[in-house]
Design brief:
The protein is mostly helical and about 800 residues long. Among the domains are: about 50 residues, no CATH class; about 180 residues, no CATH class; about 140 residues, Tetracycline Repressor, domain 2 (Orthogonal Bundle); about 180 residues, Methane Monooxygenase Hydroxylase, Chain G, domain 1 (Up-down Bundle), CATH 1.20.58.670. The protein has a two-stranded antiparallel ribbon. Helix 4 runs antiparallel to helix 5. The longest helix is centred in the first third of the chain and has 81 residues. The radius of gyration is 67 Å and the shape is rod-shaped.
Amino acid sequence: MERGKMAEAESLETAAEHERILREIESTDTACIGPTLRSVYDGEEHGRFMEKLETRIRNHDREIEKMCNFHYQGFVDSITELLKVRGEAQKLKNQVTDTNRKLQHEGKELVIAMEELKQCRLQQRNISATVDKLMLCLPVLEMYSKLRDQMKTKRHYPALKTLEHLEHTYLPQVSHYRFCKVMVDNIPKLREEIKDVSMSDLKDFLESIRKHSDKIGETAMKQAQQQRNLDNIILQQPRIGSKRKSKKDAYTILDTEIESTSPKSEQDSGILDVEDEEDDEEVPGAQDLVDFSPVYRCLHIYSVLGARETFENYYRKQRRKQARLVLQPPSNMHETLDGYRKYFNQIVGFFVVEDHILHTTQGLVNRAYIDELWEMALSKTIAALRTHSSYCSDPNLVLDLKNLIVLFADTLQVYGFPVNQLFDMLLEIRDQYSETLLKKWSGIFRTILDSDNYSPIPVTSEEMYKKVVGQFPFQDIELEKQSFPKKFPFSEFVPKVYNQIKEFIYACLKFSEDLHLSSTEIDDMIRKSTNLLLTRTLSNSLQNVIKRKNIGLTELVQIIINTTHLEKSCKYLEEFITNITNVLPETVHTTKLYGTTTFKDARHAAEEEIYTNLNQKIDQFLQLADYDWMTGDLDNKASDYLVDLIAFLRSTFAVFTHLPGKVAQTACMSACKHLATSLMQLLLEAEVRQLTLGALQQFNLDVRECEQFARSGPVPGFQEDTLQLAFIDLRQLLDLFIQWDWSTYLADYGQPNCKYLRVNPVTALTLLEKISREMKDTSRKNNMFAQFRKNERDKQKLIDTVAKQLRGLISSHHS
């Protein structure tokens, strides 16, 4: 129903509209009918309008016909006019047709242009839409291109930032495009690539750092040396109201603060090239030598990627490995100082880098990790130094090593590392240094003693005299008064040895520098080392010279004189040590020098050697003795060998004038005693089974020659006949046999004031038996007793009686 009503309503509206159009056609000029007709064609009821138009035309035709019928003439006139109009209409039609043809011809290009315009408008709309889409896509593509450029130029940290912007800001706006999906799928790969490349840069950096650690360490140690030199200059200058700055303030290694949240630069060079500076130029800081940006970038990259812990573990693990490599000393490190220096430079370089990383990053390394590495490094370094320094036998190298260790310790102390153990180890090396010094000075003393001529030093001018006195503290007013030329009592080795002892003290003092020791400790160290030099090294050198086989009495005498003067110089050595250490010898616990004992021992050894040497010379002369124990003839003069021996002793003791009196007296007494003992042994020698009284007389002449030598006083200082007492045993024994005073001997034996107190019954019996054998020898028929056999028998009986009594004395003495 409703549809029917609606259709009816529409039909009425359409009919009304058509009616209106027809009225307009009927009332409008022919020239203006176009718009009206156009409205018909624009509508949808074209057929119905045509029907209405046909109906209206028929109605008008009927009206016309009625009018024509009513006005026929007028109709004829109208037909006539109409015919005329038809001609005009035909013309008009032709004109319209021609105009239409022209219009169609002209409009064809317009239609084509309109089609082209339509296509252009369509393209314009498409281009505009494309531009809009491209405006969304271009930032994405630009960011991706920028990402690729950054990856290509190895700017990985900015590349990671660009990747984040691309992923979270730009790609979501164009996520429906396929290329965006490809980008999204490629992002994890790019992250891994950045991660891998940054790790590769870090590995290159670590490798470069490992190779250049010695350069970094060398730079740091140069800075420490410069600072120490500066401190020494400041200490030498007067300081007014100002305190000395801390070493740490003067270092520039950590002056430059580096933000831990951004890389330093975009270049990946781990080590910058630095030319070797001259000593007077400013040494660059460690941060000037090293570009740490690869570490910072890699740290930031791994932090952004959420793998910071992985990076920290990897970095620490690799650095631990490098530390172990750095701490492994070369096998020939002990051969040269450069070996030690390179070893220290690498260690310092390693810890300078770690300290810089500690202060410029947040948590990549921490203090506990650094302390752990340092404890390991300290133990390994000390062990290596103990091992390699033990091979060193050159004191200069040991001293240079000590200075290098001090510089090494001072450098690391600036960075806050504890170095007390290094200084403790230096005290151990000090003992080794002392040993190497003692070995060196042993050679020096040996050379001095071997090259000395063991003659007093002659001087021919005041200049030469002052030179010797300047080298050795010697004062002798009598010698000063003498005119030139004159001689010092000692030989050249005295000033040389004295100066070498001072040089040794200086060498000991050099080692104690910069060890942070007190003056008392330095003084104690110097004194102990000097005591070792005197009591061991110098003493052994002197003993070796004294014990030499070819040493002469003149040399031994000169050694005694020299050691006497050296002994007197010990107080000056005490003063010398006091002056350089500023520790008074009266201070409690101050070690005293044992030089006096050393030189006394050497002198005593030389004295003993003189005694031994004299005795050996005497023995050599006695080997020339050729007694004919069976002779009955008397030469009435001493044996030639003994005359020569006495002459030798006189000349020898003449040289002893410069010796201390007791030494010369002891030597003389020892020689006389040894001579008397040796002569007694000749007389009682078991191989001499028989001897005559004539031979005994000749032997008595020799002993008298010896007594004459003793009475002559070859060495001043003996009281009266003291030296003759050396021959008293021989004298009493010979007097007993020559005077044949047995009754007195046997009667007075055992009494304190007896005439033959020094004659031993055993000795007398031995000599008596030798004479008895000679008298009993039947083969000697031509002796002086042959024609007086009764006297011979009587004397033999006397000898037997005396021998029996002597045996009785011996038996009673033993019982």
